[in-house]
């Protein structure tokens, strides 16, 4: 797109937003402060580097599709992530899973991982001036095969996953220390059952005890921020998930930690956006896993849909941008994986842009004066405003491809790099 046209369109958009009292220059300053944590696992369909050809196994999550070019080595993964970041405006972090360490071709079981396996990532992130986040990997492992990890009734299995998660937190704290920005460590476990269990209480009590042991080790908040992620159901855990929303909400409030809201993990008519203003009254911060649920499955590429828009609006309206850590969580192997990141991240950013472009004060005034018709009119009118022109201008000033230009760049990378793997 021509620079002149982008600028001209922006200036016209700026005037239109000014008419409703919104300053687009200020909005772009705010947007530029938003950091999105890219989930590393879209590069390789949640395979990891524990052994050659490792694949996502179990845990009730699936990556379907066989688009060519998935990353098979750390070098390939890093090249892909660099490509992704070169196509995104604004700032990013990187969220790693424990299976993505540099294990040097040797088998290193999950209860043996150490900082040294992730030092390469820390150095990589430092060079790029980005922060790292981390996740214990309690799936794709023989000890997760019977469906229970931290809540297992088998003490040997429980002990193994407690040790793994403790090590993951230690690694996270070191990442935060070396990089000078706290690392968010997220715990998600697949524990649950296909059929209805009769003894949920014991399972949940076991999970609570395991977590208590894991969190008995304290780290400074400037290095590590802990979060726990709930789920409603998964493949093979249709009838009950041990770490439900109620469980973790209670646990986080009692123990003063974050909860992770993955918008693919709730009943389809429940809105994660609606949970934000409640959750933030009881926990200091949140971690988001932005995703797109489709029918029974989660983890589709984020698009600019009502759900993501509401999440962004509720955060901006609650003036909570400083309390929400924004992460992505999807894995789709049926399309170009770099493209998946760029679409998903850009859509999340555009949702925040639209939320920031909202004339909040005016809307609240209408609300307080019981002017419901006026409020609804303005909300509908805002949907017709030229936010795309503001977005294009933001991309241009960030020196990243504007509009559809990123499509060609990704196709070129596919031809030059991905198809040669
Ligand atoms: C699974 C959870 C979890 C995973 C990642 C890979 O349902 O959403 O966050 O997707 O940890
Ligand atoms: Zn998630």
Overview in brief:
By secondary structure, the protein is α/β, with parallel strands linked by helices. It has two domains: 1-22 and 359-421, no CATH class; 35-356, TIM Barrel (Alpha-Beta Barrel), CATH 3.20.20.150.
Note down, in words, how this protein is organized:
With 421 residues, the chain is α/β, with parallel strands linked by helices. The chain folds into two domains: 1-22 and 359-421, no CATH class; 35-356, Divalent-metal-dependent TIM barrel enzymes (TIM Barrel, Alpha-Beta Barrel), CATH 3.20.20.150. Helices cover 44% and strands 13% of the residues. The chain contains 14 helices and twelve strands. The protein has helices at residues 3-19, 24-32, 74-86, 119-128, 155-179, 200-215, 245-255, 272-282, 306-317, 337-356, 360-368, 372-382, 387-397, 405-416; strands at 35-39, 91-97, 132-135, 183-187, 192-193, 224-229, 240-241, 258-262, 286-290, 292-294, 297-300, 324-328. It has an eight-stranded parallel β-barrel with strand order 1-2-3-4-6-8-9-12, surrounded by four helices. Strands 5-7 form a two-stranded antiparallel ribbon. The chain has a two-stranded antiparallel sheet with strand order 10-11. A hairpin with a 2-residue loop joins strand 10 and strand 11. The longest helix is centred in the middle third of the chain and has 25 residues, at 155-179. The two termini are 32 Å apart. The model has no long low-confidence stretch (mean pLDDT 98). L-rhamnitol binds next to loops.
């Amino acid at each position: 797109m021509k620079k002149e046209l982008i600028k001209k369109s922006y200036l016209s958009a700026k005037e239109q937003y000014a008419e409703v009292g919104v300053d687009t220059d200020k909005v772009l300053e705010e947007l530029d402060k938003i950091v999105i944590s890219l989930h590393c696992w879209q590069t390789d369909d949640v395979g990891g580097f524990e052994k050659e050809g490792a694949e996502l196994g179990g845990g009730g999550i699936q990556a379907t599709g066989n688009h060519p070019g998935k990353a098979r080595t750390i070098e390939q993964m890093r090249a892909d992530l660099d490509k992704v970041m070169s196509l995104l405006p604004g700032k990013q972090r990187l969220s790693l899973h424990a299976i993505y360490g540099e294990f040097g071709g040797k088998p290193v079981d999950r209860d043996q991982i150490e900082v040294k396996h992730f030092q390469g990532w820390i150095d990589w992130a430092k060079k790029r001036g980005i922060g790292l986040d981390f996740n214990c990997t309690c799936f794709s492992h023989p000890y997760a095969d019977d469906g229970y990890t931290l809540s297992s009734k088998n003490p040997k299995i429980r002990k193994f996953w407690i040790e793994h998660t403790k090590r993951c937190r230690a690694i996270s704290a070191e990442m935060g220390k070396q990089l000078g920005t706290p690392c968010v460590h997220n715990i998600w476990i697949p524990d649950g059952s296909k059929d209805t269990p009769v003894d949920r209480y014991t399972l949940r009590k076991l999970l609570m005890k395991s977590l208590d042991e894991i969190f008995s080790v304290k780290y400074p908040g400037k290095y590590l921020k802990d979060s726990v992620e709930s789920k409603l159901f998964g493949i093979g855990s249709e009838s009950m998930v041990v770490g439900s929303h109620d469980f973790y909400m209670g646990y986080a409030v009692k123990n003063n930690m974050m909860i992770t809201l993955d918008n693919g993990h709730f009943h389809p008519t429940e809105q994660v956006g609606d949970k934000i203003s409640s959750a933030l009254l009881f926990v200091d911060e949140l971690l988001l896993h932005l995703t797109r649920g489709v029918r029974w499955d989660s983890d589709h590429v984020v698009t600019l849909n009502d759900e993501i828009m509401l999440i962004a609006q509720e955060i901006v309206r609650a003036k909570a941008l400083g309390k929400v850590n924004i992460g992505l969580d999807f894995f789709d192997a049926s399309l170009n994986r770099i493209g998946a990141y760029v679409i998903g991240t850009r859509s999340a950013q555009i949702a925040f842009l639209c939320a920031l472009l909202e004339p909040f004060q005016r809307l609240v005034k209408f609300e307080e004066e019981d002017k419901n018709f006026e409020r609804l009119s303005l909300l509908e009118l805002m949907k017709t405003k030229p936010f795309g022109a503001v977005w294009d201008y933001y991309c241009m000033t960030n020196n990243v491809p504007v509009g559809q230009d990123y499509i060609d760049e990704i196709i070129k990378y596919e031809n030059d790099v991905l198809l040669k793997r």
